[in-house]
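ok so I'm stuck.
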Amino acid sequence: MFSKKDRPSCSRSNRRSGRGLVASRIFGLIGLLIPWLCSGADFVVTDYGANPDGTTLSTTALQKAIDACAENGGGRVVIPPGKFLTGTLWLRDNVDFHLQPGSTILGTTDNPARYTDALLLLDKVTNVTISGDGTINGQGWHQNFNNRGREIKVSRPEMIFVRESKHIKITGIKLRDAARWIIRLKKSEWITIDNINIYSHSNTNNDGIDIDASNVVISNSIIDCDDDAICFKSYTPGFIVENVSISNCRIASNCNAIKFGTWSAVGFRNISISNCVITSAAEDNVRTPKWYERMEGITRQPTVISGLALEVVDGGFMDQVTITNVSMQGVQTPIFIRLGNREGIGSLSNVIISNIIATNESRITSSITGIKDAFVENVLIKDVIFQSKGTATLEHARKPVPEKDGGYPENRMYGDSLPAHGFYVRHAKGIHLENLRLKLRNPDARPAIVFENVHDSSLRNIQADPPTDGQPLFRLTESTNIRLSDYQSIESIDTLLSIEGKDSEKIVLQGNDLLFVDRIFALSKGAKRESLILQGNIIPPQSP
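replied:
not stuck anymore, here's the structure
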């Protein structure tokens, strides 16, 4: 019980002040609730003065809608049907930039200076979505963007640039005709890109999706562009491109379909790519001359340069990359793996590529190449069917391959052919090729597989069409500890294996069916008979 002096006073003034306290608390609570109540609300851009006529510049009105949405705790910025012309739009925290069916965001072309880096810029933001069934069109074909290979005098904007941001989702939208790259991710993480459609052949350097980011998922998307379609780039100091998954995509390009590099200064790690289809682009390359005019041996245009290009040439590293279930058509080179020294020597190791079917359109073979000072290591390629163009001559088979340690990494860096019709491997160790079917559509004088300075590696269950001109099916030069096993001769071949070089040793043929092989091995350039070990092979009686 209260004593009399401790009891609360019920005087008029106290009652009045009590009611005031309650009211102030209610209004305070309402003030806190307003942003929460408004979050998730729709902010329709036409309510802020955006004009859907496609000719009136609506940058200010569109930005007002975005800012109002963010200031009220977030929600949807709705782009209704119509065409909205704009320069750079800065997306804000907790905003869903939503394009309704029939809506188009058009990048302005009247003055490239209206842009700050991109058409849609996500800079140091969190929890942002770009969604819907509408279209974003950069109008990158315009002469003010110096298109089609002319000298670039202005800075061309990306279409969507995500920089130093987190928890970003891009879904459902169509992206057309970028002035430069379509989607660029830089030093960002927790990114989801799903069910988007990219078509961009309006300019040079029209990359599809460039990834200098971590914790990224890209799925269920269609990409058809002039430059590299999906490109991992590692150039942000201290930032590793890692924990990335790409799946269920249809990819077309006039350059490389899936590429790591060229920028490769830091590292790529823990990346998975699966269930993708790669084809040539729907439109020809905007550059001139065309590929078939620049190089011999390309008879189809357009073509993808390399279906899978894994490159480390700037001192960074690549580790733990898996690629599986990929089908390719219209590619010059199915697989291109390169460790070089353009801006420093790095490392490339621990890669698995499996379940690949490819039809190629050039004499530029799939390759795995390091340099004398740095070997590609621990690469497993298995369950592969290549339908190769062929048509190479004995001259192509014997052509020396230049080193080009610091050269720009591209399939054509060694010329318009390599001396194998299936795989050319040099300066590598721990390379394991298993269950390969290397087929030719035309006669070819090159061995199916060539190893040069390769060590601790194996060829298992390789079935390959034999070369012409008496060339061996496999050629090993200055290589050691190589095991060839489970080969089955289905048709007669002249020579199974050529061993070249005095330093070649510990070449093991084990468990092979050689009944239709006229000559099991040939030795040249100082190679010794004791370098070859035969174990458990089925050999015709007349064979050595």
